[in-house]
Amino acid sequence: MTTEITDKSLHYFSSRPRGKHHRHIPMETPHNLRTLAGISTQDGSVIASGKLYRSDSIAQLPTLSQKYLDALDLRVVTDFRSSLEQQNTPHQRCVESIRVIHRPIPVMGDNGRAEMTRVLQTVDSADEVARWLSDLYCSMVIDFSDVYAEWLHSLLSVDSYPQLYHCTAGKDRTGVATALLLKLLDVDDGQIMEDYLLSNDLSADYITARMTGKSTFSWMPEKASTDLLRPLLSVQKEFLQVMFSHINEECGSFSHYAQQRLGMAEKEIRQLKNNLLSPQ
Protein backbone atom coordinates (compact mmCIF):
# COMPACT_ATOMS: atom_id res chain seq x y z
CA MET A 1 0.00 0.00 0.00
CA THR A 2 1.32 3.45 -0.92
CA THR A 3 1.91 5.80 1.98
CA GLU A 4 0.59 9.30 1.35
CA ILE A 5 3.34 11.84 1.81
CA THR A 6 2.48 14.76 4.06
CA ASP A 7 5.95 16.29 4.08
CA LYS A 8 5.11 19.92 4.86
CA SER A 9 8.24 21.10 3.07
CA LEU A 10 6.86 19.74 -0.22
CA HIS A 11 3.90 22.16 -0.38
CA TYR A 12 6.09 24.39 -2.52
CA PHE A 13 6.10 21.70 -5.22
CA SER A 14 2.32 21.27 -5.40
CA SER A 15 2.13 23.18 -8.71
CA ARG A 16 4.92 21.12 -10.25
CA PRO A 17 4.30 18.02 -12.42
CA ARG A 18 3.84 14.88 -10.33
CA GLY A 19 6.99 12.90 -9.76
CA LYS A 20 7.59 9.31 -10.85
CA HIS A 21 7.01 8.14 -7.27
CA HIS A 22 5.08 9.55 -4.32
CA ARG A 23 8.35 10.48 -2.56
CA HIS A 24 10.05 11.84 -5.69
CA ILE A 25 10.72 15.58 -5.87
CA PRO A 26 10.61 16.29 -9.62
CA MET A 27 13.31 18.52 -11.06
CA GLU A 28 15.29 18.45 -14.28
CA THR A 29 18.47 18.41 -12.18
CA PRO A 30 18.91 16.67 -9.78
CA HIS A 31 16.78 13.80 -11.13
CA ASN A 32 17.23 11.30 -8.27
CA LEU A 33 15.94 13.45 -5.42
CA ARG A 34 13.34 12.21 -2.96
CA THR A 35 12.23 12.57 0.63
CA LEU A 36 12.48 9.70 3.10
CA ALA A 37 9.25 10.87 4.73
CA GLY A 38 6.59 8.21 4.98
CA ILE A 39 8.82 5.14 4.94
CA SER A 40 7.35 2.87 7.61
CA THR A 41 9.05 0.73 10.21
CA GLN A 42 8.00 -2.72 11.36
CA ASP A 43 6.37 -1.32 14.51
CA GLY A 44 4.11 1.00 12.51
CA SER A 45 6.03 4.26 12.88
CA VAL A 46 7.04 6.35 9.86
CA ILE A 47 9.96 8.63 9.05
CA ALA A 48 8.71 12.12 9.82
CA SER A 49 8.32 14.93 7.32
CA GLY A 50 10.93 17.61 6.74
CA LYS A 51 13.82 15.49 8.04
CA LEU A 52 15.87 13.72 5.36
CA TYR A 53 16.28 13.87 1.60
CA ARG A 54 18.55 11.73 -0.58
CA SER A 55 19.78 12.85 -3.97
CA ASP A 56 22.28 12.78 -6.77
CA SER A 57 24.70 15.71 -6.80
CA ILE A 58 23.35 19.18 -6.05
CA ALA A 59 26.77 20.80 -6.37
CA GLN A 60 25.94 22.78 -9.50
CA LEU A 61 22.31 23.49 -10.25
CA PRO A 62 20.37 25.68 -12.66
CA THR A 63 18.71 28.69 -11.06
CA LEU A 64 15.21 27.20 -11.08
CA SER A 65 16.34 23.96 -9.42
CA GLN A 66 18.17 25.95 -6.75
CA LYS A 67 14.99 27.92 -6.14
CA TYR A 68 13.02 24.72 -5.57
CA LEU A 69 15.77 23.27 -3.41
CA ASP A 70 15.76 26.38 -1.21
CA ALA A 71 12.12 25.58 -0.38
CA LEU A 72 13.27 22.55 1.60
CA ASP A 73 14.83 24.90 4.20
CA LEU A 74 17.85 22.64 4.57
CA ARG A 75 20.13 23.04 7.54
CA VAL A 76 22.77 20.47 6.52
CA VAL A 77 24.04 19.02 3.25
CA THR A 78 26.25 15.92 3.48
CA ASP A 79 28.45 15.21 0.45
CA PHE A 80 29.81 11.66 0.08
CA ARG A 81 31.78 12.41 -3.11
CA SER A 82 35.55 11.97 -3.23
CA SER A 83 37.85 14.95 -2.73
CA LEU A 84 38.57 15.09 -6.46
CA GLU A 85 34.86 15.00 -7.31
CA GLN A 86 34.27 17.84 -4.88
CA GLN A 87 37.19 19.77 -6.33
CA ASN A 88 36.06 19.30 -9.94
CA THR A 89 32.43 20.13 -9.19
CA PRO A 90 32.26 22.28 -6.07
CA HIS A 91 29.06 23.46 -4.45
CA GLN A 92 28.45 26.71 -6.33
CA ARG A 93 25.95 28.34 -4.05
CA CYS A 94 26.58 28.07 -0.35
CA VAL A 95 23.73 29.54 1.70
CA GLU A 96 25.04 30.86 4.99
CA SER A 97 22.42 28.97 6.98
CA ILE A 98 23.36 25.61 5.42
CA ARG A 99 26.34 23.59 6.61
CA VAL A 100 27.94 21.61 3.78
CA ILE A 101 29.81 18.68 5.32
CA HIS A 102 32.19 16.65 3.17
CA ARG A 103 32.39 13.00 4.17
CA PRO A 104 34.36 11.50 1.25
CA ILE A 105 33.89 7.84 0.31
CA PRO A 106 36.44 7.30 -2.50
CA VAL A 107 35.52 3.66 -2.96
CA MET A 108 36.96 3.69 -6.52
CA GLY A 109 39.98 5.70 -5.46
CA ASP A 110 39.95 9.47 -5.61
CA ASN A 111 39.73 9.46 -9.40
CA GLY A 112 36.65 7.32 -10.00
CA ARG A 113 36.45 8.17 -13.69
CA ALA A 114 39.95 6.82 -14.33
CA GLU A 115 39.09 3.63 -12.44
CA MET A 116 35.89 3.11 -14.42
CA THR A 117 37.84 3.61 -17.64
CA ARG A 118 40.35 0.99 -16.52
CA VAL A 119 37.60 -1.50 -15.68
CA LEU A 120 35.77 -1.03 -18.97
CA GLN A 121 39.02 -1.63 -20.83
CA THR A 122 39.64 -4.95 -19.07
CA VAL A 123 36.20 -6.64 -18.93
CA ASP A 124 34.26 -8.51 -21.61
CA SER A 125 30.73 -8.49 -20.21
CA ALA A 126 28.25 -6.54 -18.12
CA ASP A 127 28.27 -9.43 -15.62
CA GLU A 128 31.95 -8.76 -14.93
CA VAL A 129 31.18 -5.10 -14.31
CA ALA A 130 28.39 -6.12 -11.95
CA ARG A 131 30.73 -8.41 -9.99
CA TRP A 132 33.24 -5.57 -9.69
CA LEU A 133 30.49 -3.31 -8.36
CA SER A 134 29.40 -5.95 -5.84
CA ASP A 135 32.96 -5.96 -4.50
CA LEU A 136 32.83 -2.17 -4.20
CA TYR A 137 29.67 -2.42 -2.10
CA CYS A 138 31.41 -4.82 0.25
CA SER A 139 34.32 -2.41 0.47
CA MET A 140 32.01 0.52 1.22
CA VAL A 141 30.45 -1.04 4.31
CA ILE A 142 33.73 -2.34 5.75
CA ASP A 143 36.57 -0.10 4.55
CA PHE A 144 34.48 3.08 4.85
CA SER A 145 32.36 2.11 7.83
CA ASP A 146 33.99 4.94 9.81
CA VAL A 147 32.57 7.52 7.39
CA TYR A 148 29.09 6.04 7.60
CA ALA A 149 29.48 5.87 11.39
CA GLU A 150 30.35 9.58 11.56
CA TRP A 151 27.33 10.44 9.45
CA LEU A 152 24.94 8.28 11.46
CA HIS A 153 26.23 9.70 14.73
CA SER A 154 25.68 13.22 13.38
CA LEU A 155 22.01 12.29 12.94
CA LEU A 156 21.75 11.90 16.71
CA SER A 157 21.77 15.71 16.93
CA VAL A 158 18.51 17.54 16.23
CA ASP A 159 20.60 20.28 14.63
CA SER A 160 21.24 17.94 11.68
CA TYR A 161 17.76 18.40 10.24
CA PRO A 162 16.43 19.08 7.68
CA GLN A 163 19.29 17.40 5.82
CA LEU A 164 20.01 16.37 2.25
CA TYR A 165 22.76 13.84 1.60
CA HIS A 166 24.19 12.96 -1.79
CA CYS A 167 27.04 11.58 -3.85
CA THR A 168 27.33 11.94 -7.64
CA ALA A 169 24.57 9.70 -8.98
CA GLY A 170 22.76 9.32 -5.66
CA LYS A 171 22.51 5.55 -6.00
CA ASP A 172 25.58 3.71 -4.65
CA ARG A 173 27.28 5.58 -1.80
CA THR A 174 24.01 7.35 -1.02
CA GLY A 175 22.09 4.10 -1.53
CA VAL A 176 24.30 2.29 0.98
CA ALA A 177 23.95 5.14 3.49
CA THR A 178 20.16 4.93 3.17
CA ALA A 179 20.07 1.13 3.45
CA LEU A 180 22.16 1.21 6.65
CA LEU A 181 20.01 3.95 8.15
CA LEU A 182 16.73 2.20 7.31
CA LYS A 183 18.04 -1.07 8.72
CA LEU A 184 18.87 0.69 12.00
CA LEU A 185 15.38 2.19 12.07
CA ASP A 186 13.91 -1.33 11.73
CA VAL A 187 12.44 -0.86 8.26
CA ASP A 188 11.74 -4.25 6.70
CA ASP A 189 14.08 -5.58 4.02
CA GLY A 190 11.44 -5.31 1.29
CA GLN A 191 11.03 -1.56 1.77
CA ILE A 192 14.79 -1.08 1.98
CA MET A 193 15.18 -2.80 -1.36
CA GLU A 194 12.26 -0.88 -2.85
CA ASP A 195 13.83 2.45 -1.94
CA TYR A 196 17.21 1.30 -3.25
CA LEU A 197 15.83 0.17 -6.62
CA LEU A 198 13.79 3.36 -7.01
CA SER A 199 16.96 5.01 -8.34
CA ASN A 200 16.49 3.01 -11.56
CA ASP A 201 13.04 4.49 -12.16
CA LEU A 202 14.01 8.05 -11.28
CA SER A 203 17.15 7.87 -13.43
CA ALA A 204 15.52 6.06 -16.37
CA ASP A 205 15.71 8.99 -18.80
CA TYR A 206 19.31 9.68 -17.83
CA ILE A 207 20.25 6.00 -18.26
CA THR A 208 18.55 5.82 -21.65
CA ALA A 209 20.37 8.94 -22.88
CA ARG A 210 23.73 7.46 -21.88
CA MET A 211 22.98 4.00 -23.28
CA THR A 212 21.80 5.33 -26.65
CA GLY A 213 24.68 7.72 -27.06
CA LYS A 214 22.52 10.86 -26.88
CA SER A 215 24.69 11.88 -23.95
CA THR A 216 28.20 10.46 -23.73
CA PHE A 217 30.95 10.17 -21.12
CA SER A 218 34.32 11.71 -21.95
CA TRP A 219 36.03 8.87 -20.05
CA MET A 220 34.25 6.06 -21.92
CA PRO A 221 36.82 3.98 -23.88
CA GLU A 222 36.14 4.21 -27.62
CA LYS A 223 35.89 0.46 -28.21
CA ALA A 224 33.88 -0.35 -25.08
CA SER A 225 30.32 -1.58 -25.65
CA THR A 226 27.59 0.64 -24.22
CA ASP A 227 26.09 -2.56 -22.72
CA LEU A 228 28.89 -2.43 -20.17
CA LEU A 229 27.51 0.89 -18.92
CA ARG A 230 24.19 -0.41 -17.62
CA PRO A 231 25.54 -1.84 -14.32
CA LEU A 232 27.46 1.41 -13.78
CA LEU A 233 24.42 3.59 -14.40
CA SER A 234 21.82 1.55 -12.52
CA VAL A 235 21.43 -0.43 -9.31
CA GLN A 236 20.78 -4.15 -8.99
CA LYS A 237 19.21 -5.95 -6.05
CA GLU A 238 22.21 -8.30 -5.99
CA PHE A 239 24.50 -5.42 -5.00
CA LEU A 240 22.58 -4.82 -1.78
CA GLN A 241 22.08 -8.53 -1.11
CA VAL A 242 25.81 -9.23 -1.47
CA MET A 243 26.57 -6.25 0.77
CA PHE A 244 24.36 -7.43 3.63
CA SER A 245 25.68 -11.00 3.23
CA HIS A 246 29.21 -9.63 3.50
CA ILE A 247 28.27 -7.76 6.68
CA ASN A 248 27.00 -11.03 8.20
CA GLU A 249 30.15 -12.88 7.14
CA GLU A 250 32.48 -10.23 8.55
CA CYS A 251 30.62 -9.39 11.76
CA GLY A 252 28.24 -12.28 12.41
CA SER A 253 25.07 -10.20 12.11
CA PHE A 254 23.90 -6.71 11.23
CA SER A 255 23.39 -6.01 14.93
CA HIS A 256 27.06 -6.80 15.64
CA TYR A 257 28.11 -4.69 12.63
CA ALA A 258 26.04 -1.78 13.94
CA GLN A 259 27.76 -1.97 17.31
CA GLN A 260 31.30 -2.84 16.22
CA ARG A 261 31.66 -0.85 13.00
CA LEU A 262 29.09 1.92 13.30
CA GLY A 263 29.17 2.46 17.06
CA MET A 264 25.39 2.30 17.12
CA ALA A 265 24.33 0.48 20.28
CA GLU A 266 20.79 0.39 21.69
CA LYS A 267 21.10 3.88 23.19
CA GLU A 268 22.17 5.47 19.91
CA ILE A 269 19.54 3.61 17.88
CA ARG A 270 16.88 4.73 20.32
CA GLN A 271 17.97 8.36 19.89
CA LEU A 272 18.03 7.97 16.11
CA LYS A 273 14.45 6.70 16.18
CA ASN A 274 13.37 9.51 18.50
CA ASN A 275 14.78 12.07 16.06
CA LEU A 276 13.39 10.59 12.87
CA LEU A 277 10.21 8.62 13.55
CA SER A 278 6.67 9.62 14.30
CA PRO A 279 3.44 7.61 14.78
CA GLN A 280 1.66 6.76 11.53
UniProtKB/TrEMBL annotation:
In terms of superkingdom, the source organism counts as Bacteria
MF terms in GO: phosphoprotein phosphatase activity
Where is the stretch described as Disordered? 1-26
Positions in coiled-coil regions: none
UniProt biased composition (Basic and acidic residues):
1-10
The protein's matches in InterPro entries, at most eight in alphabetical order, are given as: Prot-tyrosine_phosphatase-like, Tyr/Ser_Pase_IphP-type
- Say which family it is in: Belongs to the protein-tyrosine phosphatase family.
How is this protein named in the record? Tyrosine specific protein phosphatases domain-containing protein
Which organism is the protein's source? Endozoicomonas montiporae
